[in-house]
Amino acid sequence: MALDLSLYLVTDSTPAILRGHDICKVVEEALKGGVTVVQYRDKKSDTGDLVKTAKKLHEITRRYNVPLIINDRVDVAIASGAEGVHLGQDDMSTTKPSRIRRHAVKAVEEGADYLGIGTIFATPTKTNTKSIIGTAGAKIILDSLSRLDRSVSTVAIGGINLSNVQRVLYQSAGQSGKQLDGVAVVSAIMAADDPKSAAEEIKKIMAVPPPFATRQLSSPRESELATDVPGVVQQVVTAHPIVHSMINFVVANFVANVAIAAGVSPIMSQYGDEAKDLAVHGGGLVINMGTLTSASVTEYLKAIKAYNSNGNPVVLDPVGAGATAIRRGAVKTLMAGGYFDLIKGNEREIKEVYGNTTNEQGTQRGVDSGPRNVVLLTGSTDYLSDGNRVIAVKNGHELLSRATGTGCAVGTICGAYLAAFRDDKLLAVLAGLLMYEIAAENAAAKDTVQGPGTFLPAFLDEIYSIVQKASQGEHTWFEGRA
Ligand code: 3NM
Ligand code: MG
């Protein structure tokens, strides 16, 4: 029987999950809905009951031509005639590539047909997991498995459900192109009121890329990308996109003024439920956690969900990410809770974001992008990457670091550029950034500019001036500047 791992159902016999339903009925409904593997997982029942249930389940799975796998118990697998056994003894806690490969080689040599990758997201179904690795961890594991001599099939597990399965498949795909063969779920099907339609819906949505997936263009070389910038700026200012900023109150006024000068319509709303109505206009969302409160994360997650499900771009600006335990927790929750087209921050913030998601030190390679996020690391030189291309930008001016809000405004500008230019996320961010930093250089060069006080109004004027030129198709503002 060929192993189709695409929708792998793991059973659970605890009352919290089964809620009085009969396990065999639930599994049969799930099979009708299209699950491709069933694993009988029951850590509590005694051997007699295990064998009895396993035999019943096997009778059912055979009718649907789906393999039955028994968790942990070779004896029960043999007694019930099940097709396989899932051994967790070698569960290991690492996203370190060399260790992953060692363990994987061993498992495959010992006859494993597939490997489970988890725990992706924290889940009440299994609380004694060793580490929450996120989609970033899954990506590291897939990339290191892709370097093995033989191919190994994989399924991801942990907190996967209808609302995040597309993102899990999309974000975990490795640089190497290696993808998951499927996802394993417990509660999303076992605890569903209607397991058949739960399985059907998951299968259906898995087959299509998430709304925020973009087609990778022919991947122009980094050095050639800049030539497209003035055209992108023109396209954005002509489109006049909306950008919804859930931004900190210190900088909200300044950032709104930058947006208006840049030909963008700013909406400053902290109200997560409002995002449903705002997201339909095709604009971008910016999550800037500069003045986080106890209510913020819930509001952010609602808004992220609305924009993600419309395929509209979301920017994360994890202001002060590592500064407090609260902020570290917020970053973790946000990274697990949604997809970010762009993550923008300084070196410390970016380190915190990716340190959290990989759950282990030493696996980051400097300025690398996360799972399909574009990353913009700002500093005296800015680094920008989408995982395939890395660009260093040396534009801008020291005076930008002498006033508050100048960094936050970059997030908002990029949100607008990502919204109005969808072909290439890296190029969109590069264009917004260069427009902004060249305006800063122009402002700083003015005789009237003596310091931060005179710089800020001159900067707004220069943004406005570039936008006026760009809207008329004039590209000279850019020539020789980047
Ligand atoms: N194994 P749900 S997580 C059985 O990480 C299991 O190894 C995990 O349940 C691992 O789909 C998990 O309800 C439970 O989140 C997954
Ligand atoms: Mg396990």
Description:
By secondary structure, the protein is α/β, with parallel strands linked by helices. It folds into two domains: 7-206, Alpha-Beta Barrel (TIM Barrel), CATH 3.20.20; 222-478, UDP-N-acetylmuramoyl-L-alanine:D-glutamate ligase. Helix content is 44%, strand content 13%. The chain has 19 helices and 15 strands. The protein has helices at residues 15-18, 23-32, 47-63, 74-80, 97-109, 134-145, 165-172, 187-190, 195-206, 222-225, 229-239, 252-261, 275-279, 296-310, 325-337, 347-358, 406-420, 425-444, 452-471; strands at residues 7-10, 37-40, 68-71, 84-86, 114-117, 153-157, 182-185, 242-246, 265-268, 284-288, 314-317, 342-345, 374-377, 382-385, 390-393. The strands form two sheets. Strands 9-8-10-11-12-13-14-15 form an eight-stranded mixed beta sheet. Strands 4-3-2-1-7-6-5 form a seven-stranded parallel beta sheet. Helix 11 (229-239) packs across helix 18 and helix 18 packs across helix 19. The protein is elongated, with a radius of gyration of 25 Å. It starts with 6 loop residues before the first strand and ends in an 11-residue tail after the last helix. The model is unreliable at 356-369 (pLDDT under 50). The structure holds ligand 3NM and magnesium ion (MG). The site of magnesium ion has 3 residues, from loops.
Can I get a quick summary?
By secondary structure, the protein is of the alpha/beta class.
Write the layout of secondary structure elements.
Layout: E1 7-10, H1 15-18, H2 23-32, E2 37-40, H3 47-63, E3 68-71, H4 74-80, E4 84-86, H5 97-109, E5 114-117, H6 134-145, E6 153-157, H7 165-172, E7 182-185, H8 187-190, H9 195-206, H10 222-225, H11 229-239, E8 242-246, H12 252-261, E9 265-268, H13 275-279, E10 284-288, H14 296-310, E11 314-317, H15 325-337, E12 342-345, H16 347-358, E13 374-377, E14 382-385, E15 390-393, H17 406-420, H18 425-444, H19 452-471
Parallel strand pairs: 1-2, 1-7, 2-3, 3-4, 5-6, 6-7, 8-9, 8-10, 10-11, 11-12, 12-13
Antiparallel strand pairs: 13-14, 14-15
